[in-house]
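Reopening this one. Same input as before:
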Amino acid sequence: MNDHYIISWLRKSISLLILLAACAVIARAQQEPSLPFVVNGTVKDASSGRPLKSVNISIPGTHISTVTNEEGTFSIKAAEKPRQLRFSHIGYKTTTRNVPDNGKDMTVKIMPNTVVLNDVIVMMDDPEKIVKIAISKIPDNYSLQAEQDRCFYRETAQKRKKFIYIAEAVTDMYKTGYNRDINADRVAIHRGRRIVSPKASDTLSVKVIGGPVQATILDVVKNRPFLLCDEELFFYDMKMEQPVRIDDRPQYVISISPKYRTDYALYYGQLFIDKETLSFTRISLQLDMSNRDNATRAMLVKKPVGVKFRPRELSLLVNYTYDEGVSRLSYLSTVFRFNCDWKKHLFATSFTAINEMVVTDRHLSGFTPIRRKDSFSEHESLYDQHTNFSDNNFWKDYNIIEPTETLEKAINRIIKSK
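Same output, byte for byte:
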C-alpha cells in the first residue's frame, strides 16, 4: 500500500528542482482535429451567487467534457457549435442550458438539491453491507470493454502562497475493462509544457503521488487493493451519513475512519454510492495524520540531509460519471501539503502540491492501444517538457481546465523573471 504514497527528495547538481510525479513524456504523433468553437462561462450557486468549482460540464450526445476551476469558470471546445451544455455537481440539480450564438460569457446558476424523505430512510441501512454489495457489482456497473480517453492534466507546486512550478499535459489513457486489474492500463503524453521558478531559493525537489499516470493508479474502483478489498476494509469503521444527489441521482454517503492501529497510515473519507445501481460515484479520502511517523512513511522515501519533513495533508478525490448505462472515471485530484524545516532557518517553510486530471473525451472503438514502450516509465518526468507558457495558443485545439486568475498571474511573473 505504501508504494502508492511516496515523496522522494532528489538532489539536482547545485540546486534542487521541483519534480512532480515521475512519469514518461512520450509525445504522440497523431494529428488532432481542430476544435474551432469555444464556449466560455461561469457556474454559480443560484441561492448564494458564489462560484462553484469542479462542476462537470458536458456536451449532450458526445463524450466531450471538462470541469470548472476554483473560480467557477470554464471553457469547452467542439468542432461545431453545440446546441446545449449540461452542468452537474454534487448536491445540485443537473441543469441544461442553450449555448448563445457567440458562445461567450455564459453565466449558469444551478440550484441546490433538496433531500427527500425516501432518501433519508436509507440511513438506517447497514453501511458495510452496502459497500460489499457495491464492490461485488463493479463488473456490472463499470465498462468491461477497453477504451481510450483523452485527458487534461495539471500539476502545481507552491512555496507558501507563491507558485514555483507549473506543468500541464494532454494525455491519452488506455484503460482495459473493469474485470481486469490496472497492469495493462497505459498513459502517454500527447502534448505538454512546464515552467519553473528560476530562483535558486525556490528549487526544492520533491516527487509526489500522482502525475498523469495517477489516472490508472488512483482509479480506486479498479485498483481495489488500494482500499476496496477485505484486507483493507477490515481496518475501518463505517457510518451512514446524510444522503445527497449527484447528477440528479440519490446517493448513499458512507463515511470511513480508522478502527485499529496499524503500522501504516489509514484514511478518513467518504464513499458515495448510487442508490439505484450501487456503483461508486465519488470517493474522497484524507490520510490520517495522527501518527506523524506513519504519515511520513506513507509520503516520504528520501530527503536531503539536514531537512526535517513534517506532513500536513494528503487528500484524494475520485469522481465517476454515469454514462450510457455504466460508470466511468471522469475526474481525479490530489493535494499534498507539508512543511520543511532547515537547521539554520528560524521558521518552517510550507509547500503545497496539487495534481488535477479531467477526462475530456472518450473513444470506445477505432483506436490503437498505447504500447508499453510509448507509455510512462519511472525514469522520466514532466519536467523534461520544454517551456511553452509564452505561447497563448498552446491549447488552441484542446479542452483543458481553465487556469485561475491567480495561476495566470503566477505564470506571467515566472516568464518575466527568466
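So the earlier flakiness isn't reproducible anymore. For the record, The CA atoms of residues 217 and 223 lie 7 Å apart.
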